[in-house]
Amino acid sequence: MVPVEHGEAAASPRARTPKTVGVAGISALTAPGTPSPRDDAAGARVIAYRPDIGVALLRGDLDLTAEQLLRDALADLLEPTAILDLTSVGLLSASCLGLLVREAGERQRRGHALALVAGDGLALRVLRISGADTWIPVFHSLSDAVREVDSWAPDQAVVGSPHRTRSPG
Asked: Would you tell me how many other CB atoms lie within 10 Å of the CB of residue 42?
């Protein structure tokens, strides 16, 4: 299956040309389609990891302007289990956080699951401060999430599964 691309890069019909980017006084040449180190535009890549697991790799700032992008990525994710990787997210707004919590609840009502990967970044801090990590399983890495999701029995594949691993810290 071909990954579904969302965001600014997906909307542009023409390929990006290499560009010079200055970061902290250093210039670097970026390859076509590669975000610059200062690129905070939100984007998502949805992958059918397995027939029963969909993974969305999110990047950039998930602010109010990225809410539709997040909705589209969530809609493209397979069921019964969806994993969102937030390790490359630079900002997680209240509107996007609310969308994640609502989506987790909807999936739970259908007997499905939503899990998040947050690493050690800002997304993890937002999830902890808001208490969302008590409702949505949060993992340190994508491999941890997949390994734990594999161990869930069908009746345990719900939000707040007691068999999830917690992020360190």
From this structure: 25
Q: Minimum mean pLDDT among 44-48, 100-104, 129-133, 164-168: which range?
A: 164-168
Q: What pTM, to 2 d.p., does this model score?
A: 0.69
The two tokens of residue 17 are 């040309």
Q: Report residue 80 as tokens.
A: 């019964």
Q: At what angle do helices 94-109 and 67-76 cross, to 10 degrees?
A: 20
**Rounded distance between C-alpha atoms, residue 18 and residue 30, angstroms:** 6
67 in Cβ contact with 101 (< 8 Å): no
Q: What are the structural domain ranges in the chain?
A: 40-151
Distance CA 95, CA 62 (A): 9
**Residues 122, 163, 165: CA angle, nearest 5 degrees:** 30
Helix (H, G, I), strand (E, B) or coil at 119: coil
Fold of the 40-151 domain: Transcription Regulator spoIIAA (3.30.750)
Q: What is the pLDDT of residues 30-81, one digit of tens each?
A: 334 444 444 567 898 999 888 889 999 999 999 999 999 999 999 998 789 9
What's the distance, CA 154 to chain centroid?
Answer: 23
